């Protein structure tokens, strides 16, 4: 199904809150074809609609922006709270209640999946970046390729940031956490750890290998500080308690509207850090998790405990302190069905 055909219905699907008409997110202010329109607000902010759900915001000419910030949501279409956050930020920008001081690219990544009330339509879009979109021809492959092009078109300044907002399928012992993608040996940023903690995200998962996720793409292709940010649990539109997202919302709004963001001193004791220990990809038709659906992310199991069976293979806990994260038995064969993580001391990491 083409994203063009979907645009009206996606807007309708999202416009559930009567106070929040969403047409602008997808059609641009003129709501006519072609989609590419640019509007200059009375405060001088330029809002450019590059494509459905792709909105570039440039601060007034009097402001010397120093940061490029990508804020993305709906890489998974059923993760609705981040979509509501992005929608509200955009509406506040259009209403001039939020005035950006930095360049911002808002991305509503997978409108077709939003409309479908599903994580994805054909393929998990968060496995299609860094060139993986060349290996298929679904609408999601095409959209991931388009998104890479838009991000490349956007990033210009030296300071580059990307927060890819998600919510998780399960409850979590740490309600909000971020995946810090592989940095190719670059030190981890104290400033970014502090910023995330200010957003309420005090738990970090280090993934120390290349992946095909959106956040890793921004690290690898654009040398951005980029993160997959998990802000809570997946719920349908209208069922999110937005007060639980207030800290992240306020942190992101401050980041984009402040010329020189002031952050507190880095304080190592503020952060819980985990290292990915094992990535378990499903290999067989007969794949099963050996714990119930209500077991939360970051739950620890005893050494030797059977976590999953994959055909004849048994996956057991190997290390003391090993915890499960992102378990999903319903992934396609070859895709990640489970990660295990172990706590790691910040002192062991190269920080800058
Ligand atoms: O709750 C789950 O099982 C999945 C939540 C989710 O979508 N997580 C991202 C993490 C991406 C990363 O590792 O950076 C994903 O699986 O795509
Ligand atoms: Zn997600």
TrEMBL record:
Bound how, and how many: what does the cofactor note say?
Answer: Binds 1 zinc ion per subunit.
Keyword Iron set for record:
no
The organism sits in which domain of life? Bacteria
Record's keyword annotation contains Metal-binding: yes
Q: Please write the reaction equations for the catalytic activity of this protein.
A: N-succinyl-L-glutamate + H2O = L-glutamate + succinate
Q: In which pathway does it act?
A: Amino-acid degradation; L-arginine degradation via AST pathway; L-glutamate and succinate from L-arginine: step 5/5
- Record-annotated residues binding Zn(2+)? 76, 79, 166
Q: Where is the AstE/AspA barrel-sandwich hybrid domain?
A: 271-343
Give all residue intervals belonging to the Succinylglutamate desuccinylase/Aspartoacylase catalytic domain. 66-255
Question: What does the record give as the active site?
Answer: 230
Gene Ontology MF terms: hydrolase activity, acting on ester bonds; succinylglutamate desuccinylase activity; zinc ion binding
In Swiss-Prot or TrEMBL terms, this protein is called: Succinylglutamate desuccinylase
Per the UniProt record, the lineage of the source organism begins with: Bacteria, Pseudomonadati, Pseudomonadota, Gammaproteobacteria, Alteromonadales
